[in-house]
User: Fold Proteasome subunit beta from Engystomops pustulosus.
Amino acid sequence: MALQSVCGWGAINPRQKPSHNLNLFPSYISTFNHFPDLLQTSQSSNSSHHRDSGPPPPAHGTTTLAFLYADGIAVATDSRSSAGKLVSSPDSRKAFLIHSHLLATTSGSSADCQFFGRALARECKLYKVRNGTMPSVQGAAKMLSVLMSPFRGTDICAAFTLCGWDRNGPCICYAYNNGTRLCSDIISVGSGSPYAYSIIDEGYRPGMEEEEARQLARRAVCHAGRRDAYSGGFVDVYWVRERGCEKDPREDQVQLYKKLEEEQKKEMQDKYNKKT
Assistant:
């Protein structure tokens, strides 16, 4: 009964034609109807009301990236959570499993991302109950977009990169709360993404091997953490393959950056010695 209530299932009326559609927004989401201020758009930053009502909204900072390689998808994130100009947490997790073959990275408000991430995991499980299989990665991205659509124009801030393996192979999809959805071989999100893209664009090639992909992902997040004040902490690297999702041991971003810098200097010195 509790599961039926959470899923939005009601008693079947024998006089009505049976429907297999589920209510995407069950009773616990109707709480927002009792607090309409939660769904109001923020005041303009130029208005006196906004300046007098309290501090400005917090700035969101992160670095997440994902790209295809020979055996699947390489995923990497930093671990720094920020609130304005303060570091609220140095070791947060910015990637979590939706199911065994679908990994989601998050950017935006931590609370919003957790809420919609759990809602998506729930919908994927219910989809499997109805259809006997998990939805495709693009189907999950569309499902997530539907879940977030009633909150467009509000202060909700949630961006997801869905990295999964379905019957069509590996797939990377990006979904944002304003309705944006896109798929690509390379996606980086967050305030540190311009720095991450600069490293990926330089070193990426289609069909690269796992060790090469690992070095590229680590270097991209390290570079972003070095240049972006809102990124840093630790480097988490994940792998999405046909057999499922795996994670490498966590590494400290500062120590890893120094290690990579020394390796790069040594490599340049070796090249110089060969020329001379």
User: Anything to note?
Assistant: The two ends are 78 Å apart (CA to CA). The CA atoms of residues 61 and 85 lie 10 Å apart. The first strand starts at residue 64 and ends at 69.
